[in-house]
Amino acid sequence: MSEFSIQTEIEVLEVLVDESPCHVIEITNAVDGHPITIDQTCSHLHSEGCIVPVGRGLYEITDAGEQRLEIQHDS
Q1: What is the largest CA-CA distance in the chain?
Q2: How far apart are CA 33 and CA 58, in angstroms?
Q3: Which stretch of DSSP H or E encloses residue 6?
Q4: Which end of the chain is more exposed for a tag (fewer CB within 10 A), N or C?
Q5: SS3 readout for 19-64
Q6: pTM confidence score
Q7: Residue 2: is its pLDDT beyond 80?
Q8: DSSP 16
């Protein structure tokens, strides 16, 4: 995964820490990103167990997601 994607993942996780659950459009607006990029990032984070869909297009961060964010901040 590219450096840009890792940065986008961190931004998405940070939004979800502060505002979970959150819709992809709300995340997109919060990180000033492109909707397709944010949707793909959410799909990738979901496949890795870092976020989970909770219905109606809302995502919530998981314990694994919070741990991943901590690791990124420590590195």
Answers
A1: 34
A2: 17
A3: helix 3-19
A4: C
A5: HCCEEHHHHHHHHCCCHHHHHHHHHHHHHCCCEEEEECCEEEECHH
A6: 0.89
A7: no
A8: H
Instruction: Please check whether residue 70 is in contact with residue 25, taking contact to mean a CB–CB distance below 8 angstroms.
Output: no
CA–CA dist 36, 19 (Å, integer): 20
Q: Of 52, 72, 48, 70, whose CA–CA distance to 62 is shortest?
A: 52
Q: Which class for 38: exposed (0-12), middle (13-18), buried (19 or more C-beta within 10 A)?
A: buried
Average pLDDT of the residues of the chain: 92
Using an 8 Å Cβ cutoff, are 8 and 37 in contact? yes
36 CB-contact burial (10 Å; exposed 0-12 / middle 13-18 / buried 19+): exposed
Tokens encoding 71? 């690791």
